UniProtKB/TrEMBL annotation:
Protein family per UniProt: Belongs to the LDAF1 family.
Keyword RNA-binding: no
InterPro entries: LDAF1
Entry keyword Glycoprotein: no
Membrane association type: Multi-pass membrane protein
Keyword terms: Endoplasmic reticulum, Lipid droplet, Membrane, Transmembrane, Transmembrane helix
Segments crossing the lipid bilayer: 54-86
Organism of this sequence: Pyxicephalus adspersus (African bullfrog)
PANTHER family: LIPID DROPLET ASSEMBLY FACTOR 1, PROMETHIN
GO CC list: endoplasmic reticulum membrane; lipid droplet
Subcellular location: Endoplasmic reticulum membrane; Lipid droplet
UniProt name for this protein: Uncharacterized protein
Domain of life: Eukaryota
Length: 90
C-alpha cells in the first residue's frame, strides 16, 4: 500500500470512529429510547424503507413550507407598513 492509500485508510477509520460515537450518543438519548419503545417506534424499526421514505418526505417538505411561511410573513409586514404609511398621511 502506498502512503496516500494508508493516509486515506486512516482517515476512513477515524471517520468511522466519529460516526460510531455519534450513533452511540443518539442511541443512548432517553427521548430516542422512549420513542423506539413506543408502538410507532417499533413499527418503524421493523420497516426501514417506510422510515427512510418518511424522513425524506419530511425533509423535502420543510423547504417549500419554510419558503411559504417566509413569503407569508413578508407580505403581512409589507401590508402593515403600507397601511401605516397610507393612513399616516391625514
Amino acid at each position: 500500500m502506498t502512503s496516500y492509500e494508508s493516509f486515506y485508510a486512516e482517515k476512513m477509520r477515524e471517520l468511522q470512529r466519529q460516526l460510531d460515537t455519534v450513533k452511540q450518543t443518539i442511541n443512548t438519548n432517553s427521548k430516542v429510547i422512549a420513542f423506539m419503545n413506543s408502538p410507532v417506534g417499533q413499527y418503524l424499526d421493523k420497516r426501514p424503507f417506510i422510515s427512510l421514505s418518511l424522513l425524506v418526505f419530511i425533509a423535502l417538505s420543510a423547504v417549500p413550507f419554510g419558503m411559504f411561511l417566509t413569503v407569508m410573513v413578508g407580505t403581512a409586514v409589507i401590508a402593515c407598513l403600507g397601511v401605516i404609511i397610507i393612513e399616516g398621511n391625514d
